[in-house]
Predict the structure of TIGR01244 family phosphatase.
Amino acid sequence: MGTQFVRHDPTFSTSGQIATEDFAAIAAAGFRSVICNRPDGEGGPGQPTSEAIREAAKAAGIEFAFLPVEPGRIAPGQAQAFGRLLQTLPKPILAYCRTGNRSAALYRLAHTAEPVQAAPTVAPACTWDSSFDIVVIGGGSAGIAVTASLLRRQSGLKIAVVDPRDTHDYQPAWTLVGGGLFDARRTRRPMSEVLPKGVTWIRSAVTRIEPDENRVRLDNGQTLPYRDLIVAPGLRLAWERIEGLEQALGKYGVTSNYRYDLAPYTWELVRSMQSGSALFTQPAMPIKCAGAPQKAMYLACDHWRRSGVLNRINVEFNTAGAVLFGVAAFVPPLMKYVTRYRANLAFSSNLVAVDGPGKVAHFDVTNADGIVSRVAKPFEMIHVVPPQVAPDFIRDSQLADAAGWCEVDHATLQHPRYPNVFALGDVCSAPNAKTAAAARKQAVVVAENLLAMRAGLPMPRRYDGYGACPLTVERGKVVLAEFGYGGKLLPTFPLDPTRPSSLGWVLKAKLLPWFYWNGMLKAREWLTNTTV
């Protein structure tokens, strides 16, 4: 079966479109019911009908329910009907649509829906007026920074920020959490505390952007019109693309610093490991913070070295790429640490499956002739970095480029076909490193260029591709990698950026977390000059 199951609780999972021949795998996975949320005929002649799926389910001894929902048009009555199915159908239940997003949204809404009232159950086509000057999709680093920058320049702007999350995370510190050097609780704050004062927070998820109509559709069935749009939802961690990974995370020695709840488990594994095989992985680019996969390895190795057990641990770094780091100037100092820690490098080695109970990882390894072979590697500990993609509502929209990212002019960060749309942060197509440091400078570019566009003036700012990746190579030392488009070095301080320094460590571990909460998210724009 090509489609992967995404588990939401012990009795409910979602998936993308299934086929009639998938029911052997569905039954083998233990599902007793299937819900179809995709209308018949939505995907053209190749899409199996609900009746064909019903017959296949019946033959497999599985209950079937048909609750079709159009993308971006989930009505309260449909969420309540879905909730009734969750209560009455035999469990566990698998729900599917084209990508799984509608089914997941129905699941969330079913758990928050009000009891059925006598009032109409279908929400109006549009429940928001056109009073917002700007709609910002995303309440992460990029979304809040650009919102704060806009309000700093024009305090009277009416801005809506769309984000369903209750909390906001300082993700750059999760590598330190995984190294036992930072408290995870200090990386998370309530969203209500970090949103700039005066904005409207719309606590919903976006399901579709319709740029020709200047509107956004939400997972609660509402439609949000906009005059100007800023796209900053970040990227999606595609855990499901590695077979068996989601079921193994947080146990069996399988961990990842890319999740708030797992970074402490990384440290638990590191400090308890005395011998055996430790694998670290990196998927194909682009990913969030390209140095984070190897930073996890360096901090673990430094702890094992200090504890006197490094010579009993086989360390291996498996990367889907062909080089250790994309900016050549930083490879020599990093290689010194690879040698120091006796780590083995496995290039063109892409993680495709994890057998948690068996403690075996499976990699597709490409040789010099382009021939791919499947290689199994046992482990006591494995730190996994998942593949990373644009959110589906971007990939499926008219805003996307060929790779699925929100297309922008690399200098102005304005969409090339929709001038009232700008994008920044991890979702935008600019070929820069996807880091919070990049979003900090992009926020100023977008804020000033958008306001100039609204005033009919030339856009004054140009983004040079700046990104920063503080590479923590050992406790107390950091290679402060700062660079722009084409790998051009863009150091902030007059020091050799390729040398590990204690100053970089102070910045990474002490100053930057404080500055993030009190500076970047408050539109204190020190050292952000990007005009060319």
Remarks:
- The longest helix spans residues 436-454.
